[in-house]
Every structure is written in C-alpha cells, then in structure tokens.
Design a protein that fits this description.
By secondary structure, the protein is of the alpha/beta class. The protein is 35% helix and 11% strand.
C-alpha cells in the first residue's frame, strides 16, 4: 500500500489473512505430491531444466519453513516464459540462520558454473534476506551494476565475481572463490527491515526477523547492492507491517494481498518476470 491509500477495514484484513493461511496450507501440502523420490532429494520438474541459454537462469529460494515446492506456481510461470529454473537441495525447511544458509547457497552455486546469461535469484520472504546476504558477500551484484553503468555486459561482470570465502566447504561442494554469475535478486514479500511481529514467537528461526536482529541491521545498513534488487509485494502483508520497500531498489506493488497468497497471483508472476528481465538487461 502507498501512504495515500485508505487503511483497509478490519473485516477486509481478516478475510485476507484467512485466505493467506488457506493458500499457505495448500502449498505446504504440495510437498507430498509428484514428483517424489523416497529417501532422496525431491527433484524439480523436468520441464524446468529446459529453456533458452540466452536467458538468465533462475534460482528459486523459499522462505522459512518452506520447501522449494512452495514456490512451484512461480517456478512454472518462469519456466513457461523460457527460463531454466533451478532449486538448491539440502536447505531442508530453511530454518538455519541467514548467514549460514547464504554460505551454503554460495557453495552450491559455485559447484556448477553459471551459463553465459548469468543467474538471478528469485526468493520469497526469508529467501530474499539470504539472497541479499550472498550478493553483499560475493560482490557479484556490485560488479554487474558497475559494468552496466560503464555500458558493458553485466552478466559477464557477474560471472567473474567469486563466491565468498567462508568456512571449509561441505563434502562434495566447491571451495570459495568460484564465480557465481549472479546478476541480482527478485524478492517477494521480504522483511528487509524485519518484522516486530517476530517478537510474539519464542522460536529462534522466527525471532531472527526482529528489526534489531544483528543480521537484519547489517543488511539494512549495506545498501551497495540495493540497485540490483527488485522487491515485489502486495497491498497488504499481515506478517510484515513495516512493508518490503527497500531504498535504492526497484519496488513493485502488485494488486494482491497477503504474505503467501501473493505468490499465486498472475500479477506477481508478471512482476517477477519483468524483474528478472530487467536485471538481465542491466
């Protein structure tokens, strides 16, 4: 919502909240649907591997307590538009800290070279914080922005930016220093400024969204990559009363409501696709 919009009624907000949780429940149930492999990481749809090598590869990153299947409708829309869509296995339900998960994501991406068109992270909620953390620590977005400003190829500059050096890599993963090819981040309903509602919970993975959390404060202070971020959000988000607008980023308000249900809106799909194209074009 914008400051000039009238505040929705209590009845309207209650109805949107109920719809939001109904949508979340349905998407959580999708984890037991096809395709399924017992005892092995669940593979993404085979059709997601197809797509044009001339378009940026999309890395889907879900929010806290979300499996990648939660973002299936968004992934299908991006795949239908011609993008190759990938997921990072081994994140579970995304309950680890932002910094630790960012390191895991960087190692996973470094283990497989990016294509010539580069990569864009498309994330929901906490996934956007993880994506920004990786952009900050890798320097990929800064390199892409500098090259674009100079009239060069941002994908080429991002491809040369290395993965951040951190703790020793896990077995089977690449060491820090390999290029990631990151062009930027499209974040949907991400609490870039935290959420005071996190104080209502005692679970550490939720309290990590408090506005005074160390990681939230650090990411808020570092605005070096905000120009390579597209923040997409609806008119009403019951989980993020402070909103998802980010200074220096491209902020897009879609005509939809909710923290979860907004993911199923065709308006959101179109906004995310536009964001990926914009970041790819510099």
């Amino acid at each position: 919502m914008t400051p000039d919009d009238p505040r929705p009624s209590v009845l309207a907000r209650g109805w949107w909240w109920a719809q939001d949780y109904a949508y979340a429940a349905l998407r959580q149930a999708a984890i037991v649907g096809a395709p399924w492999r017992l005892g092995r990481p669940r593979p993404e749809p085979r059709s997601w591997r197809d797509g044009s090598a001339e378009l940026a590869e999309v890395i889907l990153l879900p929010g806290v307590y979300e499996h990648w299947t939660f973002l299936r409708p968004l992934g299908d829309a991006l795949s239908a538009a011609g993008h190759r869509v990938r997921v990072v296995h081994g994140l579970g339900m995304n309950r680890r800290g932002v910094a630790e998960t960012s390191e895991r994501l960087g190692r996973a991406l470094a283990a497989r070279p990016a294509g010539p068109a580069g990569r864009v992270i498309v994330a929901h909620s906490k996934g956007g914080l993880i994506g920004k953390h990786l952009l900050v620590t890798s320097g990929a977005a800064h390199a892409a922005a500098a090259e674009a400003a100079a009239g060069g190829d941002p994908a080429d500059a991002a491809a040369r930016a290395p993965a951040p050096a951190s703790s020793p890599p896990e077995r089977g993963s690449a060491a820090g220093g390999a290029p990631l090819g990151l062009l930027g981040l499209v974040a949907v309903c991400t609490p870039f400024h935290g959420s005071p509602l996190a104080g209502l919970f005692f679970v550490p993975s939720i309290r990590a969204f408090l506005p005074e959390d160390e990681t939230i404060v650090m990411l808020g202070r570092d605005e070096s990559v905000n120009g390579r971020i597209v923040s997409v959000f609806g008119r009403f988000d019951p989980h993020i009363p402070n909103g998802s607008a980010l200074d220096g980023a491209t902020n897009v308000i879609v005509p939809a409501q909710g923290h979860f249900a907004v993911l199923g809106s065709p308006h959101t799909h179109a906004a995310v696709l536009d964001g990926v194209r914009m970041l790819s074009a510099g």
